[in-house]
Amino acid sequence: MSPVLSVSGVTKTYRSGQIALHEIDLAVEKGEIFALLGPNGAGKTTLISIICGLVSMSSGRVLVDGHDIVQEYRAARAMIGLVPQEIALDIFATVEDTVRYSRGLFGRHAAPGHIDRLLRDLSLWEKRRARVIELSGGMKRRVMIAKALSHEPDILFLDEPTAGVDVNLRRDMWEVVRRLRDRGVTIILTTHYIEEAEEMADRVGVIDRGRLILVEETAALMRKLGKRRLSIMMQKRIEAIPLALAGWPLRLEADGERLVYDFDANAPDTGIPRLLRDLGAAGIDYKDLETSRTSLEDIFVGLVEGRT
Question: 231: which strand partners?
Answer without folding.
Answer: 260, 290
